[in-house]
Design a protein that fits this description.
194 residues; rod-shaped; five-stranded antiparallel β-sheet; alpha+beta
């Protein structure tokens, strides 16, 4: 294990007569990468979060519940329903008429054993197509924050990886220069003057 001295904050920016041009370039690269990482992550996260929340708010405004009627008896019987569970739901076909007068049908979850013609609620979009129930404002906010957070992390990774690649390239160039200098001055160390 190597021994290290105390950690010095902002060591890249301190004056030092041994600091090379490559060290100054690397200091600016690190500063730029972290700045871009924070900005890109924040911008991506905020933009995606707002977009998701706006889309979910639009769904809450445009999607409407309609009354549909079961086209056929739902699978299961009343005795089975009482025996298994009162909360058991099954898929059944229902039909409804949209606001524009067009007829639609689709599969809905209904209590087992429901009779044909039983009214059930179906959520539809502006064209009368079946959709899921829109999320509440709280659910939309949580969903937008989660998706925005993931997008922000994804957006922050891009400049971070690019900066790491640039720093690796700078390190390779620095090592190559050290090798060239060592090849030039290393053989002179064994000679004595006089």
């Amino acid at each position: 294990m190597a021994l290290r001295g105390p950690k010095v904050w902002l060591w890249r920016w301190r004056r030092n007569p041994l600091k090379r041009r490559a060290d100054r370039v690397e200091a600016w690269v690190v500063l730029g990468v972290w700045t871009l990482t924070v900005l890109a992550g924040g911008l991506a996260g905020t933009t995606v979060s707002r977009s998701v929340e706006d889309g979910l708010a639009r769904e809450r405004v445009e999607w409407r519940p309609l009354v549909a009627r079961l086209a056929e008896r739902a699978p299961g019987t009343a005795t089975e329903n009482a025996r298994v569970s009162r909360a058991e739901h099954v898929w059944a076909t229902a039909r409804w008429t949209a606001a524009d007068g067009s007829r639609h049908s689709g599969q809905l979850r209904v209590p087992a054993g429901s009779a044909a013609g039983t009214p059930v609620t179906v959520w539809t979009d502006a064209e009368g197509r079946q959709v899921t129930r829109p999320v509440t404002e709280t659910q939309a906010r949580v969903r937008a924050l989660l998706i925005g957070g993931v997008a922000g992390l994804g957006g922050a990774v891009v400049p971070l990886v690019a900066g790491r690649a640039l720093r690796s390239r700078l390190e390779c160039r620095r090592i190559d220069r050290w090798d060239a200098e060592w090849a030039r001055f290393g053989p002179m160390w064994g000679r004595t003057t006089g």
